[in-house]
Design brief:
The chain is α/β, with parallel strands linked by helices. It is built from 16 helices and 16 strands. It has 2 domains: 273 residues, Aminopeptidase; 155 residues, Glucose Oxidase, domain 1 (3-Layer(bba) Sandwich). Helix 3 packs antiparallel against helix 10. This is Carboxypeptidase Q.
Length: 485
């Protein structure tokens, strides 16, 4: 077991050493052997006392003088929602570049990328229509990338719980109707991310399968366990040679209500009105800040989050927290007086939410420039209490990273396990073959209550949790830069 030295323990240890040097050795102590056995040398990945003190310095800087929270306040409050192609996304690019330049990084620059420009429109309305045209208005929102309804669209509803169920229904049961996908999260799963993964196919592909069978649109239960009136948006897809029909999310309360009313009256109808439209692609940018390595500048460690967000709220947890933590990780290293041995980049990716074009462009340029990427870290799971890191790497690399867990344990960030690292850094795998893709992992139990909804606002972020996350990422970067993989 590797010993970790906390500040108080280190003071006691120093005092004991002073007593021994002063000749106050206990009478029963045995003299040192004349020929002591050699002490095995420490391997390259095993931490030492200096590392423990270095991490404490990073966390002190973050908790006492951290800048993540104030940066997030500006990003979410002054700029707000930052959907790709929007004026707010461009404002975020300019702000991020200026912020990293002010922090004094060695180099700050932009990477141009063309991104989709989808606009939600002013009007979103959903209504359950029963006998004698009596209506009940329910909360809805367009799914990202949806076409509009071209006025009011009213039709019958068929409820399903999977894409396969749509394929198996008789054509007459689907044609001319809305397909209502009502598969909820599996709340028996401990990790909400697994529940999200088990339900999200109906949002992504539901309109395609509905249109193949002649449906006029897709209604999708929001991707959350929360029982409330907040509909959750998110990307949907269309396919070539399949008609494009509108897709909308219903809040979980609205989905439960529609399901209950359908059981009582299968002939009821739903009226949907959306004004969303897709405009021509816009020019945008990834924002990159860099500290050059002192010994191995050709080896690169990337840390990043995505600068864009959905348009219903402020994009605080998704992914404003990842943006400010990534910038803060580099600032913490500089403020603590550390000079990374390997080059460290903070990359703020554009267009993760509805295209991943920023992540793809960053990987393409890395390949074109024949760069060597040691590792890439992404924060895109919210700014909650740290737990550790998810790793995509060979088993030997995962084991090497796990040797640093004792150093991270005092800060509750020691859970280093195999798992999904991140969407924006994934393209690097094929492009430049980094030794590890790493995802910052924090407590996710509340994340999908807010994700892609109007509830994702600055007031839902806790300062200490946010600053601890940035320091956890800075700590891992410090160790990667010092020891490599």
């Amino acid at each position: 077991m590797t010993t970790i030295y906390y500040p108080l323990a280190w003071c006691c240890r120093t005092a004991l050493t002073a007593l021994l040097l002063a000749g106050l050795t206990p009478a029963h102590a045995q003299p040192a052997p004349k020929n002591p056995k050699p002490v095995p040398s420490k391997t390259a990945h095993e931490p030492d006392r200096a590392d423990s003190l270095a991490l404490r310095k990073l966390f002190d800087e973050a908790l006492l003088r951290g800048e993540s929270y104030d940066n997030l306040r500006y990003l979410t409050g002054t700029i707000g929602a930052r959907l790709s192609g929007s004026p707010q996304a461009q404002q975020a690019v300019e702000w991020a570049k200026a912020t990293m330049e002010k922090a004094g990084f060695d180099r700050v620059y932009l990477q141009e990328v063309m991104v989709p420009h989808w606009v939600r429109g002013a009007k979103e309305r959903g209504e359950i229509v029963g006998n004698k045209d009596k209506g009940i208005k329910v909360p809805v929102c367009a799914l990202g990338g949806s076409v509009g309804t071209n006025g009011k669209l009213k039709a019958g509803v068929v409820e399903v719980h999977s894409l396969d169920e749509v394929k198996k229904l008789p054509e007459a049961a689907v044609k001319g109707k809305f397909v209502f996908y009502n598969r909820p999260f599996n709340d028996a799963l401990i990790e909400p991310g697994l529940a999200y993964g088990g339900a999200v196919d109906q949002r992504a592909l539901g309109a395609i399968e509905a249109a193949k069978r002649g449906a006029v649109g897709a209604l999708v239960r929001s991707m959350t366990s929360a029982r409330d009136d907040n509909p959750h948006t998110g990307a949907m897809r269309y396919a070539e040679n399949v008609p494009k029909v509108p897709g909308a999310a219903l809040s979980t309360n609205a989905a439960n209500q529609l399901s209950q009313l359908l059981k009582a009256n299968p002939e009821l109808q739903f009226e949907l009105e959306l004004e969303c439209v897709t405009l021509p692609d816009e020019k945008s940018y990834n924002v990159v800040g860099e500290i050059k390595g002192t010994k191995f500048p050709q080896e690169i460690i990337t840390v990043g989050g995505h600068l864009d967000s959905w348009d219903l709220a402020q994009g605080a947890h998704d992914d404003g927290t990842g943006v400010v933590q990534s910038m803060e990780a580099l600032r913490l290293l500089r403020a603590a007086g550390f000079k990374p041995e390997r080059t460290v980049r903070a990359v703020l990716f554009m267009n993760e939410e509805n295209g991943v074009r920023g992540g793809n462009e960053y990987a393409r340029l890395a390949s074109q420039n024949k760069e060597t990427h040691l590792a890439a870290i992404e924060s895109d799971g919210g700014g909650f209490t740290p737990r550790g890191f998810n790793v995509e790497a060979e088993p030997g690399v995962v084991s090497s990273l796990a040797k640093w867990a004792p150093l991270l344990r005092p800060y509750h960030a020691a859970d280093i396990t195999v798992g999904h690292a991140g969407t924006d850094i994934e393209p690097l795998r094929a492009a430049v073959h980094p030794k590890a893709l790493i995802g910052y992992d924090c407590d996710s139990q509340r994340y999908f209550d807010l994700h892609h909804s109007a509830a994702d606002t600055f007031d839902k972020v806790n300062r200490r949790e946010l600053e601890l996350g940035g320091a956890s990422m800075a700590s891992l970067i410090y160790l990667l830069s010092k020891y490599g993989l």
